[in-house]
Amino acid sequence: MDPTERVRTAEGLQALRQKLRAEVIERAGRDSLLIATWNLHEFDSNRHGHGPRLRESFYYIAEVISAFDLVVLQEISRNLDALEDLLAILGPEWDYVATDTIESASGADERIAFVYRTSKLIHRKISGEIVLPGGQQIAARGRMVQENEATELQFNRGPFLVAFQAAGGFNFNLCTLHIRYDGHKAQGLERYRGRFESIARFLRDRQDREREDYVLLGDFGIGAPTDFFARILEQYGFNVPEALTRRRANLDAEHYYDQIAFRPVEDRLELAGSGVFRPFDAVFRMNDNDFRAYRDLMPEEKADDLWNGGPQGYYNDQWRSWQMSDHLVLWTALKVDFSDHFIEQVRKSG
User: Fold this and answer.
1) pLDDT at position 226 over 60
2) Taking a C-beta distance cutoff of 8 angstroms, is the pair 111, 77 a contact?
3) 92 lies in which domain range?
4) Number of domains in the chain
């Protein structure tokens, strides 16, 4: 980096750290397990010519991730070089598990990555795509779905599960979804609801057999300003933090997309906090100073296109989302120190 970029990046990191401390770390308290989900907006394929991301953007993304213990990242490119660069910034105590790509248009040649802090979590060597009883079909983008297919059509990208263990022997299974919403018409709504209920029912039934905690999170593609689907999750025993049903996760603050829900085996699992983190309050801000700093770094053919709103409109509405994300960070903190619970069970049992 040149001196100007180094200073700008250091100032951005300071602002991010202050905001993360105030809004996440201090709210969660000590000894909590911090879990987040974040769609990174095609990280970092540059398929549409808005990038590539600046080096400072990698530092900002790494700073946000480092505030948590486990972050599920959607829209990771098939080429893992960018993710490896991100892990190099995070340091040696971080590792990841990545899914394979989906070989279809709706899969967009993307992966999902589970990035976790190895000093707080152990990967239990269990991971894989969930296949529902009876199988599932993957929908090709743009293909009309016949009425008789509605019960079979379930996922554009298969749900993926990874098993972890936290300090104190807390075992849990993390299932991520990244599915596309078919539209607001009644038929599309019912198909979508069918997919959603299928995975909730599957995880409920599996948990009843295995007696382990489940966390369901990701980009659910809901795209509707309603908590309707949160209520579906609650019907199947999932706890959806109230703070996350009141807040919109997309950058335009108009739509719900991302969500986190957990289904505990028993009441010992407690919520220590939850919320939505907005990085653009600290970096790539929508003001004249930041616009001027990045004006010459934006691709000219995009910035000068009047359809994109000219340079200022392009910066505000598009370019900065390709540097960070067009989604906000959803997070929750879980109290996973069960020492008091264990001692109480010993006392009761004699």
Assistant:
1) no
2) yes
3) 3-283+324-349
4) 1
